[in-house]
């Protein structure tokens, strides 16, 4: 009985790690939050999507401590950077709110000289410079950004090494999988899986095809809402710009990767179908890259690592 109790306590300690998050984020004890500086520029929409997929948000200087940490992060890399914040008016021109819903009027951060100017009525996103000043800019311009996650006193870390409860480990492959019911095109699906610490699923064996087929069966048509095909989903292969020569997103030909079973009549390459998918049967199909579909992500249980906050 005592040994069972000890085992239960150990499991509880493993699954609920206080003050923890992804190791690619750094914890600030003063701001009581996690920060990640993304130096590769993106437009505002892609920046907020990537942060969201990482269980974070696009950072906004909503408090003096958060502002100080954002400036520290920027100045350690390049004081000349001007980064996107989560403050935007993408829903209604001129009505600025943070991603979390705080109005701009509650943020006590000064404007840069001659800002805001809403040049040509096209500037709906707010940036922050190394001096701690705001400016309005076009959302489509590419800029670095910071992802932010407020500290949680208790975080459930699954056996997949993530706080995302939708990833589940399959012991037949020792990999974790997530079925995304919200349709995206191939590029955005790739982005979502990558941001979650994984990648679009790659089938390496008949066993793994069975795993994905069984996963797909858990999402019948009535669970997939929207105007898109419910009998297929994106997975990780495409033609890399060379018709009929399909490779995984990691560059291997399908046969070498371990699974090359297309549905009868596939691939068809109708109207330039260049990206890969899977039917509910577990057989492969070529798809239009730009048409939204459900998709399946795959993740190594040990990546990204989870770190404890250094208080």
Quick description:
The chain is of the alpha+beta class. It has helices at residues 2-15, 44-53, 64-77, 186-195, 206-217, 254-257, and strands at 16-17, 20-22, 26-28, 33-42, 57-58, 82-88, 125-129, 134-137, 143-150, 155-156, 168-170, 175-184, 199-200, 232-238, 247-248, 275-279, 284-287, 293-299, 306-308.
Write the layout of secondary structure elements.
Layout: H1 2-15, E1 16-17, E2 20-22, E3 26-28, E4 33-42, H2 44-53, E5 57-58, H3 64-77, E6 82-88, E7 125-129, E8 134-137, E9 143-150, E10 155-156, E11 168-170, E12 175-184, H4 186-195, E13 199-200, H5 206-217, E14 232-238, E15 247-248, H6 254-257, E16 275-279, E17 284-287, E18 293-299, E19 306-308
Parallel strand pairs: 14-18
Antiparallel strand pairs: 1-10, 2-19, 3-4, 4-9, 5-9, 6-7, 7-8, 11-12, 12-18, 13-18, 14-15, 14-16, 16-17
Helix pairs in contact: 2-4
Proportion of residues in helical segments: 10-25%
Tell me the CATH topology of the largest domain: Mannose-Binding Protein A, Chain A
In CATH, the architecture of the largest domain is Roll
Residue runs with pLDDT of under 50 for 5 or more positions: 1-18
Secondary structure: number of strands: 19
Question: Can you give the mean pLDDT?
Answer: 89
Number of domains: 2
Order of helices and strands: HEEEEHEHEEEEEEEHEHEEHEEEE
Shape: globular
Structural overview:
It is a single chain. The model is unreliable at 1-18 (pLDDT under 50). The chain contains 6 helices and 19 strands. A hairpin with a 4-residue loop joins strand 11 (168-170) and strand 12 (175-184). With 311 residues, it is α+β, with helices and mostly antiparallel strands. It folds into 2 domains: 16-150, Roll (Mannose-Binding Protein A, Chain A); 168-299, Mannose-Binding Protein A, Chain A. Strands 11, 12, 13, 14, 15, 16, 17 and 18 form an 8-stranded mixed beta sheet that branches. A 4-stranded antiparallel beta sheet has the order 3-4-9-5, with helices on both faces. Helix 2 (44-53) crosses helix 4 (186-195). The chain has helices at residues 2-15, 44-53, 64-77, 186-195, 206-217, 254-257, and strands at residues 16-17, 20-22, 26-28, 33-42, 57-58, 82-88, 125-129, 134-137, 143-150, 155-156, 168-170, 175-184, 199-200, 232-238, 247-248, 275-279, 284-287, 293-299, 306-308. The radius of gyration is 22 Å and the shape is globular.
């Amino acid at each position: 009985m005592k040994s069972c109790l000890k085992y239960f306590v150990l499991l509880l300690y493993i699954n609920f790690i206080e003050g923890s998050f992804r190791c690619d984020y750094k914890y600030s004890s003063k701001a009581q939050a996690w920060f990640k500086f993304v130096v590769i520029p993106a437009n505002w929409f892609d920046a907020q999507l990537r942060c969201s997929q990482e269980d974070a948000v696009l950072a906004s200087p909503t408090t003096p401590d958060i502002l100080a940490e954002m400036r520290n992060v920027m100045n350690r890399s390049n004081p000349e950077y001007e980064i996107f914040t989560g403050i935007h008016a993408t829903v209604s021109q001129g009505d600025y709110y943070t991603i979390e819903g705080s109005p701009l009027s509650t943020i006590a951060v000064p404007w840069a000289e001659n800002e805001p100017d809403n040049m040509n009525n096209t500037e709906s996103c707010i940036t922050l410079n190394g001096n701690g000043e705001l400016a309005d800019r076009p959302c489509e311009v590419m800029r670095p950004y910071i992802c932010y996650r407020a500290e949680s006193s208790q975080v459930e870390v699954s056996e997949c090494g993530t706080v995302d409860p939708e990833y589940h480990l399959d012991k037949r492959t020792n990999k974790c999988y997530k079925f995304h019911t919200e349709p995206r095109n191939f590029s955005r699906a790739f982005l979502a899986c990558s941001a979650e610490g994984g990648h679009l699923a790659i089938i390496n064996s008949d066993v793994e095809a069975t795993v994905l087929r069984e996963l797909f069966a858990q999402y019948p048509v009535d669970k997939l809402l929207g105007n898109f095909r419910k009998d297929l989903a994106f997975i990780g292969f495409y033609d890399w710009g060379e018709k009929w020569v399909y490779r995984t997103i990691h560059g291997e030909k399908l046969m070498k990767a371990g699974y090359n079973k297309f549905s009868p009549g596939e691939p068809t390459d109708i109207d330039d179908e260049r990206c890969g998918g899977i039917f509910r049967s577990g057989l492969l199909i070529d798809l239009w890259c730009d048409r939204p579909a459900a998709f399946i992500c795959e993740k190594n249980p040990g990546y990204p690592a989870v770190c404890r906050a250094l208080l």
